[in-house]
Amino acid sequence: MAATLVSLPALPEGWAAEKDFKPVGKLTKDSATQRTIEPVGPHFLAHARRARHKRTFSEDDRIQAQERAKKVEEDNDSEISEPEDPMMLQREAKDWKNQDHYKVLGLSKYRYKATEDQIKRAHRKKVLKHHPDKKAAAGRTEDDNFFKCIQKATEVLLDPVKRRQFDSVDEEADVEPPTKKQLVKGNFYKLWGSVFKAEARFSKTKPVPLFGDDKSTKEDVENFYNFFYNFDSWRSFEYLDEDVPDDNENRDQKRHMERKNTNARKKKKAEDNARLRKLLDDCSAADERIKRFRQEANAAKNRKRLEKEAAEKKAAEDAAAKKEADEKAAKEAEEKAKVDREANKKAKEAAKNAVKKNKRVLRGSVKDANYFVTGDAPASTIEAVLGDIELVQAKIDPDEIAALSAKLTGLKVADEIKGVWTDEVKRLVGAGKLKGDEIKALKA
């Protein structure tokens, strides 16, 4: 039987025949067998997708890129998701050295614990969101400063040397020592354990002893304190160096800056050692385990003396507690009295200011009425009207002044204003607070 040849359709542009077609069956020497050629591979699938949706090459590429970007964002949202600070988005790219690289990439909760894979995925997510081309396509014309900040943060954190330098001065990863108030309310060992766990990241020696708890043995506690009192830190502080000029023309300046940076590093190193030693001093001073170990050692030598000291200590603590309670009560009473005095003072000032304001309204009302004359008011008339105003004000209390001010507020017609004043004069005369012959200008 003669072999049957299969004619193949013309390959679309971009197809590679060897990898896009798969033979099914085989042709032997003894018999010629027809074989079926089936189109397979990513190129055929892309061709079928374009044909089904009636897309051009460029349209299909754009839609596929958008779907891939969306998938990356959805994959990352669950693990790397952090609200962006609006102030951070406005950072100048040239100020990159002062930026929080972990915060820029949304890795604040990981910091020095972030893996290289997390950093890369965080960078990819941020780039997809803040790339200048994407902003331009969305119609936004912001500058690319924050995009440059993203790139610089990634450059620093993916470089082991630069990242180590940044981690050396990353204060955001530090845990502040607990305050006395926190120690009263919280767990002493948990609070201080968090502090030294953060400090342990700088140790050249691994593993680092744990702070432990109230059940730790004397050996474990002594091992912990000995380790940290002789702490060997890798912190170098060169990230904070001032920039050294690279040009050869300023060699003296370059050497000067290098010496200055070296001295600054030594100073910061000494300050950091002193800081850690103070932490240990403060912690050990309040560590009940150390007190307990000392007491147990002394008890083995002289139990009676320790029992007496314990009784004296309890009495002293009770006395101190009573004294503290008395002082606290006295202080609270004093603070309450002070608050009451301040409140009374403010109330008096407010009342005084209200009276002043209302008196201004009273004087202003007669001025608005042109002192109840037509044309320019003579000085004698002004003097007589204001004299009556002062006389009436002297005869009434602040509440009556406020009521009279409320009646005059908003009045502009002279007769209406004068009517209010004459009514008030009549009221005072009727109450016996004012004699009729005392009034000169505000009579009915």
UniProtKB/TrEMBL annotation:
One GO CC term, this protein: cytosol
Residue ranges with Basic and acidic residues bias: 56-73, 306-351
Localisation per UniProt entry: Cytoplasm
GO biological process: 'de novo' cotranslational protein folding; regulation of translational fidelity
GO MF assignments: Hsp70 protein binding; ribosome binding
Assigned keywords, A-Z: Chaperone, Cytoplasm
Compositional bias (Basic residues): 253-268
Region spans: Disordered: 49-86, 245-273, 299-355
Source organism, top-level taxon: Eukaryota
Alphabetical list of InterPro entries matching this protein: DnaJ_domain, DnaJ_domain_CS, J_dom_sf, RAC_head, RAC_head_sf, ZUO1-like_ZHD, Zuotin/DnaJC2, Zuotin_N
SMART domains cross-referenced by the UniProt entry: DnaJ (SM00271)
Major place of residence: cytoplasm
Compositional bias ranges of the Acidic residues kind: 74-85
Gene3D superfamilies in the cross-refs: DnaJ domain, Ribosome-associated complex head domain
SUPFAM superfamilies: Chaperone J-domain
Domain named J: residues: 100-170
Protein name: DnaJ domain-containing protein
